[in-house]
Each structure stands twice: as C-alpha cells, then as structure tokens.
Amino acid sequence: MSKVTIMDHPLIQHKIGIMRVKTTSTKEFRDLVSEVAMLICYEATRELPLADIEIETPLMKTTVKEIAGKKLCIVPILRAGLHMADGILNLIPNAKVGHVGLYRNEETLEPVEYFCKLPADSGDREIFVVDPMLATGGSAIAAINLLKKRGISKIHFLCLIAAPEGVKKFTEAHPDVDIFIGALDERLNDKGYILPGLGDAGDRIYGTK
Ligand SMILES: O=P(O)(O)OC[C@H]1O[C@H](OP(=O)(O)OP(=O)(O)O)[C@H](O)[C@@H]1O
Ligand SMILES: O=c1cc[nH]c(=O)[nH]1
Ligand SMILES: [Mg+2]
Q1: Is 162 near ligand 2, meaning CB less than 6 Å away?
Q2: Tens digit of pLDDT per residue, the chain (209 long)?
Q3: Positive or negative CA dihedral for 92, 66, 71, 126?
Q4: Which residues contact 57 (CB under 8 A, 6 or more apart)?
Q5: Which of 58, 176, 192, 200 would suit a FRET pair with 112, their CA atoms being 20 to 30 Å apart?
Q6: Where is the Phosphoribosyltransferase domain positioned along the sequence (predicted)?
Q7: ipTM for the complex?
C-alpha cells in the first residue's frame, strides 16, 4: 500500500494558506509553488541512500556522505507541475527532467495526454512526479501509467493539495507509489475542483484566467 505523507510543517501550512487567498498575485503564487515544492521535496528525499566518499578538508582527510548514484529525475505534469520542478531543481540541480503533458477534459474530467519526453535512462532513476493538484486523481494515475509502461518502477508523487477522493483512487491504482501531500483538503465539488482548494493551479501560475 502507498505510504501517504501529509506535511504538517508550519512553513508549508503558512505558505499554502497564502496560496489559497484569491487576491494573491500571479507572481507571489508562482513563487510560493516553487517554495512549497522545495519544502515537500526535502521530506520526500529523506530516505535517499547515501554513500561514503573520501575528501580532503583544508585540514585533513575525512569521510563524508553523498547521495548514492545521484540518479534522480523530476517529472512535472504539464503545465502546472512545471513550476514545482523549477523549485525542486534548486535543491537537486543535477536531477534530469522528464515531461508528461496532460490536461483534464473539463466535461468528462478524464485526462488527455499530449506530450511525453523522458530521459533515456529513466528506468535506472528514482523518479519524482510533481503536480500541484490531486483532484479526481485521473491525471496523476495516467502520468504514472505512462511511466510504468516505459519500464520505470521507482516512483514517488508530490503534490501541494489533494482531495480525499483522489488519494483513494491513486493509492488503489498505484499502491507501490508513495505520495507526499502539502495539504489534504475536504472534498471535490461537482466540477471536480478541490474544496476549499486554491482554484485552477495552472491558471493561477500563468495568469491565464
Ligand atoms: O486529479 P485530476 O482530476 O486529474 O485533476 C488534477 C489536474 O488538473 C490540473 O491540470 P489541468 O488539467 O488544469 O491542466 P493545466 O496544468 O494545463 O492547467 C492539475 O494541475 C492536475 O494535472
Ligand atoms: O481544484 C483543482 C482541481 C483540478 N485542477 C486544479 O488546478 N484545481
Ligand atoms: Mg489547469
């Protein structure tokens, strides 16, 4: 069964609170997406394996830790996930980046795939799929189906806000994928939007509405 981690850190709660406010500007919203993604990534990478390496300080030789293998890959779900990836790259600048393009048909709420480009060696990498919103769960499930079809198995999913309906559907579809959630909200409305939520994440990041 997926491990579901809901962030309780005060900084994350504070920043998501500002994101929910409808008058928060596009610039501030965008900056917060990136900052909260970084904070969630800090927790999501807690169990990465470490290896010992020998180095020399200005005073003596010693052994320090480095992340073993450094084979990480961030996969934003376009378009709203892109800005989370930018934030995470501040913490893991050497990660490779793959892209999955999906949008949700507003009538059926079903995800529609339009793009997929992944690093050639993705199957050897630990993958962090990122999207601010897990609503019905359809988009995240479809994105991870695409990755699994390409032989990728070490997958984590990070989102800023999730609805309980989406978490249930996701964990049933991908019990082997752990989820890290900034805030777990109350429910979906009849149009599939998360309540209280923050509206349409893509529109708020890019100012398209
Ligand atoms: O869990 P679901 O019900 O599938 O909904 C969540 C999806 O909806 C939003 O994307 P959207 O379709 O608005 O695309 P965009 O990022 O291009 O705005 C969001 O970023 C997720 O990808
Ligand atoms: O509340 C929601 C649901 C889906 N997509 C969003 O951007 N927001
Ligand atoms: Mg959108």
Answers
A1: no
A2: 889 999 999 999 999 999 999 999 999 999 999 999 999 999 999 999 999 999 999 999 999 999 886 689 999 999 999 999 999 999 999 999 999 999 999 899 999 999 999 999 998 899 999 999 999 999 999 999 999 999 999 999 999 999 999 999 999 999 999 999 999 999 999 999 999 999 999 999 999 98
A3: negative
A4: none
A5: 176
A6: 7-208
A7: 0.97
Q: Which residues of 84-97 are buried (b: 16+ CB within 10 A; e: fewer)?
A: bbbbbbeebeebbb
Examine the residue annotation and report whether 104 is marked as an active-site residue of this protein: yes
Task: Extract the tokens encoding 208.
Answer: 């398209």
Question: At the top level of CATH, which class does the domain 4-206 belong to?
Answer: alpha beta
Q: How many CB atoms lie under 10 A from the CB of residue 146?
A: 19
Domain boundaries, the chain: 4-206
Q: Let me know if 190 is a catalytic residue.
A: no
Cα(108) to centroid(ligand 1), Å: 13
Q: Is 134 in the pocket of ligand 1 (CB under 6 A)?
A: yes
Beta-carbon contacts of 51 under 8 Å, excluding residues fewer than 6 positions away, are 65, 66, 67, 68, 69
